[in-house]
Design goal:
Blueprint lengths: L22 H9 L5 E5 L6 H11 L4 E5 L7 H15 L5 H9 L5 H14 L4 E6 L7 H12 L5 E7 L7 H6 L3 E4 L1 H4 L3 H11 L6 H11 L3 H14 L2 H10 L4 H11 L3 H9 L8 H8 L4 H10 L4 E3 L7 E3 L1 H12 L3 H17 L3 H10 L3 H17 L3 H10 L2 H5 L2 H13 L6 H18 L11 H18 L3 H14 L5 H17 L3 H18 L2 H17 L3 H19 L7 H14 L3 H14 L5 H18 L3 H10 L1 H8 L6 H16 L3 H11 L12 H13 L3 H17 L3 H17 L3 H15 L6 H4 L3 H13 L3 H17 L7 H11 L4 H8 L3 H15 L4 H11 L4
Parallel strand pairs: 1-4, 1-5, 2-3, 3-4
Antiparallel strand pairs: 6-7
Length: 892
């Protein structure tokens, strides 16, 4: 399971009976609700939370409340809590985004937020989101994601932020757009009337007006200062003495007042307060465990009655906290105690949280006690669940919080950190952790003794895990041979019944075999990995394995088998999910979208591919992005959405740079680069493609290695665009033979189609027709469509010839109908009058210089118009532009 949601953070603080109604400020809040954001900024103790709680109690619309703290400085955790808060206020809202947030740490967050914002927009009525104590959030990526959320917020939603400091948000821009409602310290200060109401009506002091005015003046309207002054007056009974003390040095107002209040409490109350200061939140049972007493319930009641800055944080009054300022004072008092006493208090808290299965809190207190062995053991007990649910960022944070020497001595932690680093493709230090884990395990095996976190009986399995992680490291660096060697070594050492590790190792071995060109052997191994993964019941391995096999089957040209594999995988997902969406569905959706695209069902393909962006697994997010983005970008290109395709490819650019840092031309990086180059071709940016060809050092005669051979397909397309037909034909023939030998028939079919185009351009019409007919005969049983029609008018010309000659005529007619429908469905092309003039002259065969002379413009201006025409028509040459324009009736 994912880490639990702490429901007390999602509850509006209960309304306290001793409070001054602040109607003027509530009205200010209500007046700003039509804007995007309300910001309440003031130091501690000025009543920000109290004001928001008063306003929320009166709100006719649902209020989603989130009390933030230091533990929320993780992008995944922050948004998980935001979604949970909104779902608490509006049951079921955004249910479809809960699953990826509950299981992803590095998800493409904007894609998830888009779906969440859309769900909010579809909800009738207003919704308000309160983010309290936002000053505890420090991470720029959280600020940036909140900016994105605010900028796209629907009109029925308003965000209210309470913070001690101005948050790192574009406040000036929001002010300029009249989208910001602001309340600051001067707004929250008690007026004279409010101070009188508080001191006399709420605190029952019955002070004369002059003393009320004096106290209000010396505390400068500070709510907490007034409360402390009132409590002090109850003790000393003299406003004169209090005012005299306050007037001496206002920097120590709180210390003086809190000390006056605290020091007058009985010794057992003071001891209870100081000892429980180790806790961020308090319950009866927890405090009993920490203080070794059994009267915490009575103590809670006393502290509430005495108004000692002891605040409930849930409606049931099970959990409480100290006011922040009192907590600071108690912390200083606690720090005066011996370190051994503080450590003992933290350890008691750790053991209590452990007994409640609240491992995160238990770990934090063990760490505070400097009991690193206890903290490490807790982390080890939770590591498998955290990693399987994608808690990569939090896992690394906790491991890094331990001394390095402790981590290196514990194989489980070394392996967990190695897994995190492999997933994030931060490969520099992985070998050190794997070496250390292996050394400790081998030493334990030799001595016949347990090692930290691993019993003697588990050492062989842990050593196999080390081999597996070394294999994954090699795979990330595109070293297929080393991946195979290490994987086979691990399998040889594993018992046949250990499906938990045999499944992922067999999966990795199959993928490595694919990279070496043994496609059929790889497919067989992936089939075996599927059965092992089903036996292991590991959702992540199941999803990735079904995805990998279906992707390979499509590459082999076996669309029908791929569909069966995907349907089976989705059925397994539905069976395991019990009505919830498991994250591995995203990969299966991506591949199903790819298959539907090949069959020309673009609407369904778009739906599945877009959804897959929101559901992909976190621990391989870089890889997942690179698996999905090229497919989605291709669909966008073919729909004429070139700008969107460029944005989609840019989304995965960071992941590509990570791999490039290690010179890793992994399979998915290759596909991304090929798709990006194809987009440049569609935009007629031949210079960009040519520069990329030079940077890659591509040459037609270089050895063919999979998957980098796909780069040469781009070179062939560049030559086609440059009308270098003979060179392109030779290269395409060589590439097609290479793909066919290795059973990658979809690639072979595509290359043969391009060969036919090159033959047509060379005037070899009969050869071109014969080439295309052979591909038609091979591809027809599997139902390929986009394979052909994506190549545009040249292939359409050859399909018409096939129909006339009676070769694969029915299939050719079907493809022609699909092509005409696809082209007619493309967005209307809007050309300026000057672009139409240039296009008509292009159709007449005029050169750029001739066009410039006839239109009395510069040659550079002609080039710019031609570039724009190519982009709008989604073509790469004059011939294609004229053909496309004729089909759209733009030359009439």
């Amino acid at each position: 399971m994912a880490l639990p949601i702490l429901v007390t953070k999602l509850q509006v603080p209960p309304h306290h009976e001793v409070v001054v109604p602040r109607s003027r400020l509530v009205e200010r809040l209500n007046a700003g609700l039509k804007r995007r954001l309300t910001l309440i900024t003031a130091p501690a103790g000025f009543g920000k939370t109290t004001l928001l709680a008063e306003w929320a109690a009166q709100s006719p619309a649902p209020v989603a409340w989130l009390s933030l703290d230091e533990t929320d400085n993780d992008r995944l955790i922050f948004w998980r809590y935001v979604v949970a808060a909104i779902q608490t206020a509006c049951e079921g809202l955004g249910a479809s985004v809960a699953a990826p947030l509950l299981s992803a740490s590095t998800a493409p967050l904007e894609a998830i937020l888009v779906q969440f914002i859309n769900a909010i927009a579809e909800r009738p009525g207003d919704l308000y989101l309160v983010l309290d104590d936002y000053h505890t959030i420090r991470l720029p990526e959280i600020h940036n994601s909140l900016v994105y959320f605010l900028e796209h917020l629907p009109g029925n939603t308003h965000v209210l932020i309470a913070s001690r400091t101005d948050p790192h948000l574009p406040l000036a821009r929001l002010r300029g757009r009249s989208q910001l409602n602001e309340l600051y310290l001067t707004d929250l200060q008690f007026t004279a009337e409010e101070a009188a109401s508080f001191l006399n009506a709420c605190m029952a002091l019955n002070l004369p007006g002059a003393e009320v005015q004096a106290l209000e003046g010396v505390t400068e309207g500070w709510a907490t200062g007034l409360q402390l002054a009132a409590l002090t007056l109850r003790s000393v009974g003299s406003a004169t003495n209090v005012l005299e003390a306050l007037s001496r040095d206002r920097r120590y107002i709180f210390d003086y007042l809190a000390s006056e209040v605290l020091d007058r409490e009985p010794e057992h109350v003071q001891r209870f307060l100081v000892e429980t200061a180790v806790l961020d939140r308090l319950s009866h049972d927890l405090c009993n465990a920490v203080t070794l007493r059994n009267d915490s319930r009575d103590m809670f009641a006393y502290l509430e009655r005495a108004h000692l800055f002891f605040l409930p944080i849930d409606q049931t009054r099970r959990w409480y906290r100290f006011h922040t300022l009192l907590a600071d004072l108690l912390q200083r008092r606690l720090n005066e105690r011996p370190a051994s006493e503080r450590a003992e208090l933290h350890l008691r808290a750790s053991h209590w949280f452990e007994s409640q299965n609240m491992v995160g809190e238990a770990f934090r207190h063990a760490l505070a006690a400097s009991d690193h062995d206890q903290a490490a053991a807790l982390l080890e007990s939770d590591s498998e669940a955290m990693l399987s649910q994608g808690e990569m960022v939090l896992m690394e944070q906790r491991i890094r919080a331990l001394p390095e020497v402790v981590v290196l001595a514990r194989p489980r932690l070394c392996l967990a950190l190695a897994q995190v680093l492999v997933a994030a493709t931060r490969l520099t230090d992985i070998e050190r952790y794997l070496d250390s884990a292996e050394a400790v395990l081998v030493a334990g095996e030799r001595c016949g003794a347990d090692v930290p976190g691993v019993p003697l009986a588990g050492i062989p399995g842990a050593l196999c895990e080390v081999l597996y992680m070394r294999a994954m490291l090699a795979a990330t660096q595109s070293d297929a041979d080393k991946t195979i060697q290490l994987s086979e070594q691990a399998l040889a050492q594993l018992p046949a019944t250990d499906v938990r590790w045999r499944a992922p190792i067999t999966l990795g071995l199959g993928l490595a075999r694919r990279l070496t060109g043994n496609t059929r052997v790889a497919a067989s191994m992936l089939g075996e990995a599927i059965e092992l993964s089903l036996a292991s019941q590991n959702p992540a391995v199941i999803g990735v394995t079904f995805y990998a096999l279906s992707d390979m089957q499509i590459e082999m040209g076996l669309l029908r088998q791929a569909e069966q594999t995907l349907r089976r995988g989705l059925a397994q997902e539905a069976q395991m999910s019990r009505g919830q969406t498991l994250p591995f569905r995203g990969l299966l959706y991506a591949e199903l979208g790819y298959l539907l695209y090949e069959r020309n069902d673009l609407a369904q393909a778009s739906r599945y591919l877009s959804t897959s962006m929101q559901l992909t697994q976190p621990w391989s997010m870089d890889v997942a992005l690179l698996q999905i983005v090229p497919k989605l970008a291709r669909l966008m290109r073919m729909q004429g959405r070139l700008a969107e395709a460029a944005e989609m490819l840019a989304l995965a650019g960071k992941a590509v740079k990570t791999f490039d840092a290690f010179n890793a031309d992994v399979y998915n990086v290759v596909l991304w680069q090929v798709e990006r180059a194809q987009l440049w071709l569609d935009q007629n940016d031949l210079d960009a493609v040519a520069r990329w060809v030079v940077e890659r050092g591509l040459a037609a005669e270089q050895p063919l290695v999979y998957p980098q051979a796909n780069f040469l397909r781009v070179l062939a397309r560049l030559w086609l665009a440059e009308k270098r037909w003979p060179e392109a034909l030779v290269l395409l023939t060589r590439l097609a033979d290479f793909e066919r030998v290795h059973s990658r028939m979809r690639n072979a079919y595509k290359l043969e189609v391009l060969r036919a185009v090159a033959q047509l351009r060379l005037g070899h019409l009969s050869q071109a027709a014969r080439t295309l007919v052979q591909v038609l005969a091979a591809a027809q049983p599997e139902g390929f469509v986009r394979l052909f029609i994506d190549e545009g008018e040249p292939v359409a010309e050859l399909l018409r010839l096939a129909v006339r000659q009676g070769h694969q005529a029915d299939y050719a007619r079907q493809l022609l109908a699909a092509a005409e429908q696809a082209w007619s469905a493309q967005p209307a092309v809007e050309l300026s009058e000057r672009e139409r003039e240039v296009l008509r002259l292009l159709a007449c065969g005029a050169s750029n210089r001739e066009i410039a002379r006839r239109l009395v413009i510069e040659v550079g201006t002609v080039k710019r118009h031609v570039h724009n025409i190519y982009g709008k028509l989604a073509v790469a040459s004059r011939e294609q532009a004229v053909e496309r324009a004729q089909s759209l009736g733009l030359l009439a």
